[in-house]
Write a structure and sequence with these properties.
single chain
Length: about 100
């Protein structure tokens, strides 16, 4: 791997960087809330994802938005063996 393309691990994310994911938009016609939540999950550590979900819900966005295949981000995370902490964050945010 080229030095300028090395994966950054444990990068410190600022609140502004985390908030910037609220501007992510889908390019394939899928629901914007679904897309930004999925990108946040794929990009962030659990602690950063928790903060993102707080921002996301404060804006009244839909935690249960689905992709073109009808699955929610929680459905997708549930299929990942390392997704447990992220799934719990979403469940707590969704409430009872």
């Amino acid at each position: 791997m080229r030095k300028d393309k090395e994966k950054v691990i444990d990068e410190v994310w600022t609140e502004d960087h985390i908030r910037s994911f609220l501007e992510v938009r889908s390019h394939d016609g899928s629901d914007h809330d679904f897309h930004m939540l999925l990108k946040a999950y794929q990009s962030m550590r659990a602690s950063d994802f928790q903060l993102f979900v707080d921002f996301f819900t404060a804006e009244g966005r839909n935690l249960l938005a689905t992709g073109k295949d009808g699955r929610s981000v929680l459905d997708i995370i549930g299929e990942h063996r390392h997704g447990t902490e992220y799934a719990e964050i979403l469940r707590r945010a969704a409430g009872p």
